[in-house]
Amino acid sequence: MSSTKFILGLFDDPDDMMHGIDKLQKNSVPIYDVYTPMPIHGIEAKLGVKPSRLGYAAFMFGCLGGSTIFSIIYYTMVHDWPINIGGKNYFAVPDFIPITFEWTVLFTAFGMVATFLYATHLFPGRTPRVMDLRATDDMFVIAIDAKGNVPHDDITSLLKEAGAVEIKHNDRKYVSYE
Amino acid sequence: MKTHTSFEGQYEFVGKAKTWSLIGIVVGLVVILGGFLTGQAERTFANLLLMGYYFTCVCMAGVFFCAVQYVAQAGWSASVLRIPQAFAKTLPIAAVVLIAIVGAGLFITHEGVNEEGHAATVPYLYKLWAIKGVAEVGNENYDHLIAGKSSFLNVPFFLIRLVLFLGCYAWFGNLLIKYSTNEDEIGGMSNYEKSFKMSCIFLVIFGFTTPIFAFDVIMSIEAHWFSTMFGWYNFAAMWVSGLAVMTLTIIQLRKAGYLSWITEDHLHNLGIFMFAFSIFWTYVWFAQFLLIYYANLPEETVYFYKRWEPEYKPWFWINIVLNFVAPLLVLMMRDSKRFTGILQTVAIILIVGHWLDYYMMIMPGALHGGHGAEHHEAHWYTQITWIEIGTFAGFAGLFTFTMLTSLTKFKSLIAKNHPFLQESLHHHI
Description:
The complex is a heterodimer of chains A (178) and B (429). With 178 residues, chain A is of the alpha+beta class.
């Protein structure tokens, strides 16, 4: 039993990498994930990545922000300390719209950032966990979970055939670059 | 990736589209004639102005769309450009129709009442400032406020501005079409570069003149009142309704078997546009409302006072529901921008919604001789009559007929030598 946890295939060309994905899928090698320095159109569909649910989170945060400030204004301006401003009703809804809008936007923006950081484990101050740092520079990396039933040599030769410039057998999932 | 075998197919304007647009035109003509014959000339004129303005604005949005795409150097839109170009090609016709309506409204008069409630000979449109003697001290139609504005708001200068602005937009639209069709013939970058340059110039001119265009054609109906937001408010309405008509046209053309290269990704972009600018429309609408509401100055609130009367109040709210709530809640989801059926429904809601928006701008001021004779028996649901519906049908038919006829003039339905064409064909979001 080898200690290899992940096999990485590093490509220097996105087309070769896409070709490599096809080859691996044809041979029923389960792909853990793919890391690329730039967005590649159509890769989500090919890998069967589920659509992001970030939009739903954004909507909920927006609703939360809007209702929070509306409640605060209602409490302060209508319930607790009503002030006559220009002879308007105490509960003058049009006056409340701008701040409600602002808080909706604010909560949406902050909420989306927080959700994104949570989902990607990118908390401020934490060392980023990456499989190979060059995936943020000039390498297109296919990561394969080595615990599967496919012999490692077969995976290596498939990657080599597809044009991988380097193949790594990693004992750890993430490599620290601190 | 699907291969596109031919870009050469020309659009043929036949069948159902032709029949129904001609039926629309006939219905419109009958209704307009009926409106004049049944003694409702004032309402008919107001409706003609409404639809003439709507028609012109949709065509202007076509020129604006092309110019924005060139200036932004947008790639995705290269394969849809022929549709806004067909709108732009229709602009001269729309402009002539609008100028004819406005001219007739200014010069055809009837016996009515002036602002003071005295019997006077008043024009059908713009009666507040186009009435004879409005700027002459001592005349019984003299109006102090209008007299102060008369160096700008007088019939000759008004007509000169209208002709100048519309002529300018139509000229730029024509130029962009000419560059694009030349590009089809000879290829290369020279036409694209010229389009970019002229689009930049056009957008500057357009940005400064559309507010004045809206002030003139719509805001001057209630010439005592003014709002500096009005120009942008009308710009937003023009842009959203233009995008909605464009989306609907593209969806219908695809259903008829044309534009096979337009995918759900292109429609997604149009959906995003409609969504974003519906919110922009609400933003300017509300900015205008809030300032007037908050300052509470009588000469400003009179505008909303009229629209808050029982016969308009429900329409006031329906306007917000159709133009803000509906696109906001429906188009927010990614999937609804990608399903043709939902997108088409929203486009139709927005087309009707912005008709209602223009209705709310025009009718309270153009009917019933200002704030004189009240119609106490009027209900909100009787405020939209067969004249409104018939005129809408007539102009919808006229637009469809003229726009699709313009589309047949193009040798191909795609700008086949556009430098960004491949990017557009592979557009993916």
